Fold these 2 entries.
Entry 1:
Amino acid sequence: MRLTAVAPSLALLLALPALRADEGMWTFDNLPLAQLKAAHGFEPTREWLDHLRLASLRFPGGSGSFVSADGLVLTNHHVVRGLVQRLSTRERDLLKDGFVAADRGAELKVPGLELMQLVQAVDITARVAQAPGRTEAEVLRARELESQKAREELRVRTGLTVEIVSLYQGGQTWLYGYRKFTDVRLVVAPELAVARFGGDYDNFTYPRHHLDFALLRVYEQGRPYRPEHHLAWTRGGLKAGDSTFVSGHPGSTSRLWTLSQMRHARDAGTPRQIKTMERRRAALEAFAARGFEARALVGGQIYSLDNGLKATRGYLAGLKDAEGMAQVEAAERRLVAAVAADPRLKAEAGGSWERIEGALRESEALAPETQVVHARSSELLATALNLVRIPAEVAKPEKDRLPEFSDGGLQALRERLIKPRPVPFDAALEVHLLTDGLKEAQEVLGADHPFVKAMLGGATPEAAARKAVEGSRLQDPDEVRRLLDGGAPALAASGDAMIALARILDPFQRDLRTRTEARVEGPLRDHAARIARARFALYGTSTYPDATFTLRFSAGAVAAYPANGTLIQPFTTFHGLMDRFEGWGGTASGLDRDTWRLPARWLARRDTLTLTTPYNFVSTNDIIGGNSGSPVVDKRGELVGLAFDGNLESLPARYYYDGRANRTVSVDARAILEVLAKIYEAPRLVAELTGK
Amino acid sequence: MRLTAVAPSLALLLALPALRADEGMWTFDNLPLAQLKAAHGFEPTREWLDHLRLASLRFPGGSGSFVSADGLVLTNHHVVRGLVQRLSTRERDLLKDGFVAADRGAELKVPGLELMQLVQAVDITARVAQAPGRTEAEVLRARELESQKAREELRVRTGLTVEIVSLYQGGQTWLYGYRKFTDVRLVVAPELAVARFGGDYDNFTYPRHHLDFALLRVYEQGRPYRPEHHLAWTRGGLKAGDSTFVSGHPGSTSRLWTLSQMRHARDAGTPRQIKTMERRRAALEAFAARGFEARALVGGQIYSLDNGLKATRGYLAGLKDAEGMAQVEAAERRLVAAVAADPRLKAEAGGSWERIEGALRESEALAPETQVVHARSSELLATALNLVRIPAEVAKPEKDRLPEFSDGGLQALRERLIKPRPVPFDAALEVHLLTDGLKEAQEVLGADHPFVKAMLGGATPEAAARKAVEGSRLQDPDEVRRLLDGGAPALAASGDAMIALARILDPFQRDLRTRTEARVEGPLRDHAARIARARFALYGTSTYPDATFTLRFSAGAVAAYPANGTLIQPFTTFHGLMDRFEGWGGTASGLDRDTWRLPARWLARRDTLTLTTPYNFVSTNDIIGGNSGSPVVDKRGELVGLAFDGNLESLPARYYYDGRANRTVSVDARAILEVLAKIYEAPRLVAELTGK
């Protein structure tokens, strides 16, 4: 285990929370090169880094990479699980039976899947900082508009998909330009039983035995795309202690939160969030129980809720860990002292910690309404609400609109609203979920609350939901386009029942947003930004920004860790898979039917496997959800593994990094070749991946 | 997992802490038959129980059982590890290389090993209760003498080795008569590397891969002993959910302690104990570092300290577990309320909880002296102290003596003092440990403390220790016998330097004992007994007594449990052993050289093993240290496993049982036959064990 920290300058030592050697999700423009050299004896060249960055891809909610000259893309099975499920039919269950394309012609187009490659990153911090304004609010608004203007300029100039990225909680503003790939086809997906062996039980744990990979291929103009950069497959392999580098898209961390924010999350926010997720899961599960098609429709959502629930419980455990929180508290004490010692910073942020505490108290008062006054329980209702609002907002000067209706945001919103549906529409599901949302509102606010009375209009939740869904045509993109193009008159003339419901929701939700903005979000944003500016003034880019689902680099090494009373081995092997299969003795009754089971194809061919082949491994890389599918490379830049999870001990890293037991869990690259050759009998793919 | 509790009567429900189905280390005379029937659908016959009891054996510090008609005895490797080490020479390292007797003639006599078989148990509670006395102290003393008289009577009448056993903290007094076997020979001991695969890291953990078994054979008159009862080896095997029954000797539990005793242990006693053990371990390790012979001499002590340390840390974790302690607190609250509600019990024990708290406070004041004023750091000093005290004590009326010098105790003490040494005497070790003990006294009490000044006599600890050891002949049993037989005159004439040191220690230690007895132990014993009597009056034998290293019966079932974020599999297999071996990738640098390594014999023959064979398993049986080596039998009474450990989650069971994750870890009987056949090539033993 590497715990040696790089010695920063003395001034930093006094103020900066000491970074563990392998702590940090760094942007490619600001890598800790001295730290890399000290901890890993490694000085990557510009070429090495560009190659890794340009081979990296972003999936919806995950990461991936180009791994062959003919555009093969490697990611996790669980990143594309919902898509694989939607490619399944009753006759062809790709989750249960897996999928291996017999040849390129048999590769399956994945509708709606878009992969993003980060090709340009522009720092617009200075430009945005010059935006004028008399009051603080005006300045903030002007900066936002300036960012959107810059984004639009870059989009037009380059044709790239451009996103505004705020780093260091507003310390820096960047434009990230992505090349987008929209023709992506499925090449290999293992059976779900091995891809998620041990199911939700083993999720976030280690020792692990997951074949959590999938291969896809990017096409352009109907032909395999030949990427400029793809990762070469390792010819050797890792051993304990070897350095590992991860390039991927960590989704979100809150390491720069104040202690009071973390305590609020611990005592109120996170427990409430868990309850909400549990309720949503129960509603989806009740729907899935209706049959095969129903489960196919919502199975992906249930998986991701299960994943989210276990993760959120792990975050909560981190917030409840006395030792970890003491670390957070110490870091905050140092920052507060440093701010207090500098008159300028003190004027800027000295009172911000107290103001944040006040805002958190206000958020508790608004919590019941926040929980239910929204359009999240129904996809159609969300669409209707946007349709209702667009003409009203467009009629206002840009600076007075709700932020998502700025000129820059509007275009993206319109595109989103008329995009072909990735999931077939199911009216029964829509009714089911909207009913549950209305019931929840009734339970949380009481039947006599004006919002509840207005939404139900005297009917039961189910009747109200049925009426709105059955009286709506918003599932049809053409109808949505017609209403968008027709503007206020078309909308006024529409008798769509969901539009009618959205008109009821609209004023309640606007009012709640106004109050929330004034009492909670405005002060939180303002004072978090003040603290962030003070921190940035003190520490600058000597540290790394919180995760933002943008491309990051993480360094680490293969390392055992202490857990379950012992040291946990750095690698598992196929022997371990067989042990965990046999160790349940064929009697997993009462458990999920596919938990710790092996597919027939595996049982038939198990004797062909070299069981000592490394299967999964753990390394000290600092990653989080969104990094799933990230390539793991060695110092040569060769692909040695495929990150798919963190261990339980990594979950508190949402709030603070603790290198003693925080581990990234990856599929070993050798295991993928082994199963492609022995189980899936795809020598063609082995040859393509190994460049032979 | 079985968590269904048997419904007790309503009256009990109100007062009795609800027993988990598999909670309890029951005496064979008082088995929870209704509970067995309800939880396991099992009604053992008298014959079934007698057979299991009489096949069971007690080892020094462990358990075992007869497993063949020709007297083969099965126990854990770790129970006889110290003995195996002492049978080793530089040329024949039985720990490293293992041992398999080529034939009966090659079986190795184990010097000093005595096995005990419980053949008679007599309840003398009523007899002892009649012992007369005017004061409470007189009554206690009279009871003690009466017990010892009864023991001596039974010993003379039966020729058995008789022990007084106090159950339910004095609620019952029994005489247990043992048949003793003194000619025991080693037949099979696997290599240490597989017997304790994973070393201290894996100790008390699961999933586990320990081949922790050894076979010995009892001889009588030079011929294999043919026991009336031996356990038949299973012909089938266990599966998850199957019932398992353990017969063995749990050493010690403290489940009937008061909450204040547990809190005192948590905050003061146990942390202090851990420090003392760590100091002792460091002293032994420093000695072992001198070379092969030194390590051979103390290796067993180090092993057992490591084991004890990990266990004690687990006990401490239990004491620190809020949920577990809440359970203890609730049980105590019920008992206190029940006592308060009964005028007679209230008069007896109503004030006892407060008195126990007072005694614990007193014990803290005496703690520094208690830590160092004793003869435990030197074996010779302990012998000398007994020699000095015997004539002085014998001269007093029996009732005024220190308890261990009563007529009954004296005989056992004399025998112990002149028994041939099981370990060769090593003057350097003796000096080393006595030096450390004297240093500790200096550190704890200060150089100016009268005790320290007297013991050192102006010399350094090392010089004082060297003088005492080198000037002593007490390592020679003949010299000890001479001094015992010669009585006070012989002792007075002796110029033995260790006797001289013991004469200095004696008054300090007597004074400390007097104060401790008056302020701590007397009140603790008195009030613990009052509470115990009240509890016994309320609950009787509907519950089970704390462990006393006497034979107990425990029922359970093979069951997974939640840990490390998932469900832990009920069985491991040889695949798991290979996985954990390969998973360290051959690079266990920095760890013990034999940790997670396999011996050459195993690597050469690994391909012969059927890797799917169950290896270790977990069950819900309620056991604790001392149960090591206990047979695990199924409903047919056939040997299905060999208990060798509890998981980490079982350690808090020293204080309270929590069936959710408390598991006994056993070697599967099938694994033993598999390795005897394939690795150790001993078909003769396989045939003997399977009765073929």
Note: The first strand of chain B starts at residue 56 and ends at 59.
Entry 2:
Amino acid sequence: MVVHNETSTGVTSRVPAIRAAIDATGHDALLLVDTISSLASIEYRHDAWGVDVTVAGSQKGLMLPPGLSFNALSERALVAARTSTLPRSYWDWAPILAANRKGFWPYTPATNLLYGLDAALDRLESEGLENVWRRHARHAAATRLAVQGWGLEVLAADPREYSASLTAVLVPHGVDADAVRRIILERYDMSLGTGLGKLAGRVFRIGHLGDFNDLMLAGTLAGVQMGLRLAGVDVPATGLAQALARLEWDD
Amino acid sequence: MVVHNETSTGVTSRVPAIRAAIDATGHDALLLVDTISSLASIEYRHDAWGVDVTVAGSQKGLMLPPGLSFNALSERALVAARTSTLPRSYWDWAPILAANRKGFWPYTPATNLLYGLDAALDRLESEGLENVWRRHARHAAATRLAVQGWGLEVLAADPREYSASLTAVLVPHGVDADAVRRIILERYDMSLGTGLGKLAGRVFRIGHLGDFNDLMLAGTLAGVQMGLRLAGVDVPATGLAQALARLEWDD
Amino acid sequence: MVVHNETSTGVTSRVPAIRAAIDATGHDALLLVDTISSLASIEYRHDAWGVDVTVAGSQKGLMLPPGLSFNALSERALVAARTSTLPRSYWDWAPILAANRKGFWPYTPATNLLYGLDAALDRLESEGLENVWRRHARHAAATRLAVQGWGLEVLAADPREYSASLTAVLVPHGVDADAVRRIILERYDMSLGTGLGKLAGRVFRIGHLGDFNDLMLAGTLAGVQMGLRLAGVDVPATGLAQALARLEWDD
Amino acid sequence: MVVHNETSTGVTSRVPAIRAAIDATGHDALLLVDTISSLASIEYRHDAWGVDVTVAGSQKGLMLPPGLSFNALSERALVAARTSTLPRSYWDWAPILAANRKGFWPYTPATNLLYGLDAALDRLESEGLENVWRRHARHAAATRLAVQGWGLEVLAADPREYSASLTAVLVPHGVDADAVRRIILERYDMSLGTGLGKLAGRVFRIGHLGDFNDLMLAGTLAGVQMGLRLAGVDVPATGLAQALARLEWDD
């Protein structure tokens, strides 16, 4: 079981490498991937990457309220489900698959969200999924340039695993990341993600996924830059300037 | 008849001075003021300033779709309307005032917009009208600092008449302001106002009225700065930096 | 100037007959028709009937909130407008026609209502305008059968002029129509139209236009029947029964 | 485990009697009640009736889209959950209760539905919960009078268990209930519930729960009456007439 995009740290797993590692061992383990905060924001390929179960949700890259979750299943996952003796009821795929074939759902469906999904998919298809991925990758790159310009560090250590959905930023020692977040919320009405677990107080997280464009990112980074300074972290204006220089060119 | 805030140029009339000038002549002319783009964004006082007729609309500072217009009337305006022999029907105040007294409107009212108005007034009252004015004045000051930082000129010549709702910016000679606007619309999905009449091609206008906060302004100014550079106007990053320095402090 | 559908009485003017009468005199008067409560509910043909100016609104058959008004103009009306010396400004067609040609409007347009109009026209076209007219004619016929079954009278005297948008019903002498309306509003949360001018207290009006179907009409007529009885008008259940008998067959 | 209101049959369980029966045996079994289609439509008292776990949903009496589910828990249920060794994760109350205490939810909450719930509860409280129950009981009584007038039978056998949320109606032998439903859907755009399991083709179900008033019921019953006749079931108009006679008086 792998989280494709780790929301609390801003790290994106290299799923194909994980699949290859499993295959190399000759083990027949199923590969399950959580794409809640990556689907429709970061390149992801259920079939091509040999994933057995993909779990996704409506409330991030699909730009909808929370309330829908999705599973994509490989043939092997279906076989495993059919032959498994684990007790199950609500989470059982069999009645769902049977109903889906006729365009239905075995329980009361969230019809209003399905209408929203229809509109969201229209938007994604009209932009083109590869363009959507490229847009988020570009925003993530510009965000990292801002962080670098501020003299701060991105939490993710391996550039191959930088997240295109969000960036977790380490604050200097002696600074409380939650105090920075509070100032930015109060002064600029912008809510940044908090550090979780052992990262509490050490990082704040900038989201740049879903329905997001260049000027939203510019406003977001301006808010972070001003908030850091108000919190006593004397970051230079170079941060935002470097990000904007990146946003001036398209690809 | 005076326009309080001239939307095409970003100039705000000094209404009390105009009233005083009329009074100084001893003439009994009525003073009519159009506040379409100033009401609930720029300080305005119908009674204290001795205005006879104020005309306002729903679609700017009141943060609603277009569709409602408002008149505030002085006692003298009412007397003039009663004694005037000018023919009138739809624009006649008498049936409206009579119906209003009972909470009604003589014709089919736009009830959905009235519900919206109720919500908009709640928001304005909860922020406090003086705070709303201050917010827009601060955004306008930050915008002018950006313009100055870019080495460009604000169209309004007299600092007492700078508009807090919008800022018209002169582009350097040889640059087509509409080309700048087009680039910004295409690249950053932001629509700036065009120059009208003899200002066509010479100015673009940045709106900062209504439901607007610091980070929206930061995103807006970032878009203008990037767009100018993409259009070949080599403005320095100082523009946005000066605006943000202003937005770091509150008053 | 003719009102196509007289909302206060439930009478529909025979516009072609009026046109023919004008033509018969050889007079070159323009024919102006108000279709506020008939457009997209009752058959109407601007060109075929030789109308010069048609006035319509968004808030009835077009199923939108109030806020848009429409004019259809004949060639003769355009010539008259061009050659007339009557002073005009806001109501002047010339700048509107010039802007319309390029898909614009000379003043701030109510864009949100235009999106609504787009959806409303899709619905009307998908049902088919002739079917829409037929639907309302059928509902009006069923309503009159109910009125007859109750032993009451429809206000409109000439069957050729029965309105398909609404039906005005005369209450028996000694009964206050507004008391009936009040009871129905309080008990059944349904608001009927009041009698206007000399019809005050003598009639109530049942609307059956716009987005309306058989069961809404059934509920409406049930509410009127119960309300009349509660108001002391001992109408028989035959009224609703006759209306339903009509709604059982389609055409 | 008891379903308070059985949606497929229109039968309401007498929960206090079930509680008494359990208590009479001296058994310490927990009592779990599903109130999906009864909450806020039919009298229900979690504490007074000694229920241990109540399960409810947003999409019926609470008048919201599907997407929220609620549990009310007795002290004994909490103890059982704490001491039980059954494996659980998503359905575990402990983290939810801990987060709820601070006004939060351990996972991504459906915030938009929570705003809707706030509005729905305002409406229910403004009508008064006992009045809401009385309204639905009255509509159910009127519906049964219609069924009786048509010469048909209500599926529920015991009058103490008639549902106030919905009424399942048996069609005469030789009639296909689904054919009746199809005609009503096609002709009158009204969707009735189908018979499930061994009731397939034998019953249709009339819902009268949630945001529902007298004239909606009148329209509904008119549609059923007309649809039955169109389907060849020659029911008399007495059905609707008897229902309306009931709706004429308030209590």
Note: The radius of gyration of chain C is 20 Å.
